[in-house]
Design a protein that fits this description.
By secondary structure, the chain is an alpha/beta fold. The protein has 2 domains: about 170 residues, Rossmann fold; about 90 residues, ACT domain (Alpha-Beta Plaits, 2-Layer Sandwich), CATH 3.30.70. Helix content is about 35%, strand content about 30%. It contains 12 helices and 14 strands. Strands 6-7-8-3-9-10 form a 6-stranded mixed β-sheet, with helices on both faces. A 4-stranded antiparallel β-sheet has the order 2-1-4-5, covered by helices on one side. The longest helix has 18 residues.
């Protein structure tokens, strides 16, 4: 698979003017972004996500390490050449960054005008892009006349004006409501699939990653602590940071408060089993319960899809006449390859 973006040992340190203290924003990040994929980069505030994206488009230079985009090492060329390289990289922002004094068409045309594109070609390209994002009929409206979702669609059209190979979306849906967020993510997925644009989505929302990403990189304290296929990270997160994010997106495990309420109504032992897209998984779960002679009542859980593959977990209350019946059921589940956790008492 062709690598479009390559980061090797990238660090970015700042020195605070007031105290002289060194602040580590990004530390020793090595990461590949494959051509044609959507990579989600997720982390809490202060994790280094936005600094990382500014390093990718060379708006900032690393303190150490190298950044290569489309075979060109941006950290090893003059600023004039970096400016030219940035034309191949589109950018969309959380707060849209539209010119309030320009029409929608004028906003989309702006980067083309700066690049010296002839007027007739600019007009053709603007109409094409506004049609693609569903706003051709609003070409002569102004930003304040649009909703947040429409403004972000304009931002996407503007970012695509120069036919970029790479699109960087920095918290592009954080200012939007959930329904509009889904619409914007669906549009970005169209950009990826229909136009072949590689996309890096910077976000603190794992649900956005679930909806759009092929792979995900988890950042914590300036480092990339986990990278993997989005389904693999959701189904078997390897780090505490990834596990925290997965819980926020799947909502399939009972919170401590919910667990307390469940225990008030269900005196048996509460056991959670992980659901994946493995063939015959539910049959193996049911067979383990029957073999151990337990009664299993489903009391909590949720199952959804990521990349058209099933994922989630189900929490059962298990009761048995035999003192060892529930333990036997858990052993049978694990022997059948089912990932199982007993919910500890609060």
């Amino acid at each position: 698979m062709t690598v479009l973006v390559e980061l090797r040992g990238v660090s970015k340190h700042y020195r605070r003017a007031d105290t002289g203290e060194t602040v580590v924003a990004v530390e020793d990040v090595s990461l590949d972004v494959h051509q044609g994929e959507v990579l989600g980069v997720i982390g809490y505030s202060g994790a280094g996500k936005s600094t990382l994206v500014r390093l990718v488009n060379a708006l900032e230079l690393p303190s150490s390490g190298s950044v290569t985009v489309a075979g060109q090492e941006l950290t090893a060329i003059p600023e004039r050449d970096r400016r030219l390289a940035r034309r191949r990289i589109g950018m969309i922002f959380q707060q849209f960054n539209l010119f309030r004094s320009r029409t929608i068409a004028g906003n989309v045309a702006y980067p083309l005008k700066v690049a010296g594109v002839a007027k007739a070609e600019r007009e053709r390209r603007v109409a094409e892009l506004l049609d693609f994002v569903g706003l051709l009929d609003r070409a002569y409206a102004y930003p304040e006349q649009l909703s947040g979702g429409q403004k972000q669609r304009v931002g996407i059209a503007r970012a695509l004006a120069s036919n970029p190979e790479l699109l960087l979306a920095d918290e592009a849906t954080s200012a939007l409501d959930p329904e509009t967020t889904s619409e914007v993510l669906a549009l970005l997925r169209r950009v990826n699939r229909e136009l072949g644009v590689t996309i890096i989505v910077i976000t603190h929302e794992m649900d956005a990653v679930r909806q759009i990403a092929d792979r995900v990189a988890v950042m914590e304290q300036g480092r990339v602590v986990e990278v993997g296929d989005v389904y693999d990270v959701f189904s078997t997160p390897q780090t505490d940071a990834a596990q925290r994010f997965v819980r926020t997106a799947l909502h399939d495990r009972p919170s401590p408060e919910t667990l307390t309420r469940l225990r008030e109504r269900h005196p048996g032992r509460l056991v959670t089993v992980q659901i994946t897209d493995e063939a015959g998984l539910q049959n193996r779960i049911d067979a383990a319960f029957r073999a151990a002679g337990v009664t299993a009542e489903l009391v909590y859980g949720g199952v959804g899809e990521i990349r058209e593959r099933r994922i989630g977990s189900l929490t059962y209350e298990l009761s048995a006449a035999s003192p060892t019946g529930v333990d036997d059921a858990i052993d049978a589940l694990r022997s059948a390859g089912v990932t199982t956790d007993e919910e500890a008492a609060a």
